[in-house]
């Protein structure tokens, strides 16, 4: 792995940082959160038309740019710095890779060019709180997380050659505004139980979508209800290994999320350093106190270690090296973000403890991501299980 960035990658970061500095400042951010979509549609059009962000990691055959996952991760690091709410994560990190991996030629040709152009947004809908489970980040995803019982989850039934979905999913990222839903549903009964993915247009008859109040308002979420909604099976047949595809997408998503968390932690630390260099106490700036310097130095070390790991994970997942490192790296990045946000609140003193201060947006992002994608200790525990680090030694039996 070459740790240096290419000229194109530097240009992506620079251009995106300048744009978000102008269009996604604290005031713009809070205004966007109050819109029905939960993000600024005009900014999304700019990101799509001027920067080609939605198609950054999609193949050129489908209207994309054809860049590696690393470039998308670097872009998400910048959106993480500004906490910019946008359909980028749900559409390009969760939904598009599943369409590319499982979709038929007709489905790819119909949907991916529209995603690459920014005209179509999409998301993955799974029953709450099973997103981390579905993506195999905190445990195996071969169970009945999609709704194995009669109550809860989403059930799929095939009648006269057509699929119908019934059930409910919550905490669906951008589920209230996405133009396309990839719905994970349970079908086959007890004996032939399996989970499949279905395509549901945002305006489908019988689909009810309500935006939810979330701890982290910069990640808009929705509750969706499917009342005998007609759906299209994603892929050629019912024999596809959907859990395996979700697991691969989960590892890649974790790497991108880690870069996003690193960007947020970097900005939180940057703001704190600025503040302690200006705030005076006992006749001197508080940044000159050794205790404050030590605390910020600890945050900096955690941040740089998390950034290095996140870059490696983005590079590795884009090359299918056979090792799943996304969840472990995400745990490290989320911990760095929580530490940076916590120190920001503490070192901003009285104003830092007010709920309206910007530092709390970063703290909510750290806490909200742990709720959605798994707390750090569970991410690490699953990574250890996958690597079989704590296997019991074989017991020798005397004959």
UniProtKB/TrEMBL annotation:
Listed cofactors: FAD
Q: Which Gene3D superfamilies match?
A: Acyl-CoA dehydrogenase/oxidase, N-terminal domain, Butyryl-CoA Dehydrogenase, subunit A, domain 2, Butyryl-CoA Dehydrogenase, subunit A, domain 3
* Domain called Acyl-CoA dehydrogenase/oxidase C-terminal: residue spans: 255-384
Does Cytoplasm appear among the keywords?
no
Any one Gene Ontology molecular-function term assigned to this protein's record: acyl-CoA dehydrogenase activity
What UniProt keywords apply to this chain's record, in alphabetical order? FAD, Flavoprotein, Oxidoreductase
Acyl-CoA dehydrogenase/oxidase N-terminal domain spans which residues? 6-119
Query: What Pfam families has UniProt attached to this entry?
Result: Acyl-CoA_dh_1, Acyl-CoA_dh_N
Domain of life the protein comes from: Bacteria
Oxidoreductase: is it a keyword of this entry?
Answer: yes
Family, similarity comment: Belongs to the acyl-CoA dehydrogenase family.
By what name is this protein known? Acyl-CoA dehydrogenase
């Amino acid at each position: 792995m070459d740790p240096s960035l290419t000229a194109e990658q530097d240009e992506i970061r620079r251009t995106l940082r300048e744009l978000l500095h102008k269009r996604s400042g604290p005031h713009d951010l809070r205004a966007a959160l109050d819109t029905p979509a939960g993000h600024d549609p005009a900014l999304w059009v700019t990101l799509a038309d001027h920067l080609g962000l939605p198609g950054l990691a999609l193949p050129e055959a489908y209207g994309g740019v054809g860049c590696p996952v690393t470039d998308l991760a670097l872009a998400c690091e910048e959106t993480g710095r500004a906490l910019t709410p946008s359909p980028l994560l749900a559409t390009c990190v969760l939904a598009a890779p599943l369409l590319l991996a499982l979709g038929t030629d007709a489905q790819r040709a119909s949907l991916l060019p529209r995603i690459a152009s920014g005209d179509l947004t999409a998301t993955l809908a799974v029953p709450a709180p099973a997103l981390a489970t579905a993506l195999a980040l905190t445990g195996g995803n071969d169970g009945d997380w999609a709704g194995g019982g009669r109550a809860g989850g989403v059930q799929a039934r095939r009648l006269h050659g057509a699929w119908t979905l019934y059930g409910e999913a919550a905490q669906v990222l951008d589920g209230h505004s996405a133009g396309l839903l990839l719905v994970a549903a349970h079908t086959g009964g007890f004996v032939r139980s399996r989970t499949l993915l279905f395509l549901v247009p945002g305006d489908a008859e019988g689909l009810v979508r309500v935006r939810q109040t979330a701890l982290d308002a910069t990640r808009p979420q929705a509750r969706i209800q499917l009342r005998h909604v007609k759906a299209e099976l994603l892929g050629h047949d019912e024999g596809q290994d959907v859990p395996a595809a979700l697991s691969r997408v989960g590892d890649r998503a974790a790497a991108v999320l880690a870069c996003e968390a690193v960007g947020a932690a970097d900005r939180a630390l940057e703001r704190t350093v600025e503040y302690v260099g200006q705030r005076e106490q006992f006749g001197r700036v508080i940044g000159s106190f050794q205790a404050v310097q030590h605390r910020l130095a600890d945050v900096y070390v955690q941040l740089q270690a998390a950034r290095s790991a996140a870059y490696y994970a983005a590079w590795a997942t884009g090359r299918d090296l056979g090792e799943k490192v996304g969840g472990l790296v995400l745990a490290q990045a989320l911990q760095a973000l929580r530490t940076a946000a916590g120190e920001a609140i503490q070192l901003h003193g009285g104003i830092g403890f007010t709920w309206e201060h910007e530092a709390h947006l970063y703290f909510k992002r750290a806490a909200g991501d742990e709720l959605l994608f798994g707390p750090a200790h569970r991410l690490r525990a699953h990574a250890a299980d996958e690597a079989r680090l704590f296997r019991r030694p074989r017991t020798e039996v005397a004959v």
